[in-house]
């Protein structure tokens, strides 16, 4: 016979109970930045396509990509690229069997976040 109290029990882990850790947040951000980089790649391909098509079309696309909104998108793309790269290095470290302790994994998560911001700022200053 079916358990009649089954519908009254809370789901586990429930959002009210579960506290996200830096490792889970950084894993989610890695997936988000990977997908966001696809959008950035499409914009760059669009820019190349416009350059190959005509001068008038290129001016339209170039105007969009060099506007404040385009600059914001490209800046966030650089941040996403650095984040995704550093997260990949972190996974290579984990795949080799190092840094799997909880304290070290948390430090690596913060290193990826802080490192990506610092490298983005350096990139924007140099370019």
Q: What do you see in this structure?
A:
By secondary structure, this protein is mostly helical. The chain has a single domain, classed as Fumarate reductase/succinate dehydrogenase, transmembrane subunit (3 helical TM bundles of succinate and fumarate reductases, Up-down Bundle), CATH 1.20.1300. Helices cover 76% and strands 0% of the residues. The chain has four helices and no strands. α1 packs antiparallel against α2, α1 crosses α3 and α3 runs antiparallel to α4. The longest helix is centred in the first third of the chain and has 32 residues. It is extended. It starts with 21 loop residues before the first helix and ends with a helix.
Supply Rg: 21 Å
Mean pLDDT: 91
The major beta sheet can be summarized as: none
Domain module tally: 1
Number of strands: 0
The secondary-structure class comes to mainly alpha
CATH architecture: Up-down Bundle
Categorize the overall geometry: extended
Strand and helix order: HHHH
- Percent range of helical residues: over 70%
DSSP helical segment count: 4
- Write the CATH homologous superfamily: Fumarate reductase/succinate dehydrogenase, transmembrane subunit
Ranges where pLDDT stays below 50 over 5 or more residues in a row are none
Distance between the termini: 69 Å
Instruction: State the CATH class.
Output: Mainly Alpha
**Into which percentage range does the β-strand content fall?**
under 5%
CATH topology: 3 helical TM bundles of succinate and fumarate reductases
């Amino acid at each position: 016979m079916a358990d009649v109290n089954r519908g009254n029990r809370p789901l586990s882990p429930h959002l009210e109970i579960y506290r996200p850790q830096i490792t889970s947040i950084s894993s989610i951000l890695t997936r988000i930045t990977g997908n966001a980089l696809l959008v950035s790649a499409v914009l760059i391909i669009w820019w190349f396509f416009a350059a190959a098509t005509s001068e008038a079309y290129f001016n339209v696309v170039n105007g969009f990509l060099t506007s404040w909104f385009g600059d914001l998108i490209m800046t966030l793309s650089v941040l996403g690229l650095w984040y995704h790269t550093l997260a990949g290095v972190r996974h290579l470290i984990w795949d080799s069997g190092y840094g799997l302790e909880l304290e070290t994994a948390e430090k690596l998560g913060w290193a990826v976040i802080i490192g990506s911001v610092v490298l983005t700022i350096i990139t924007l200053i140099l370019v």
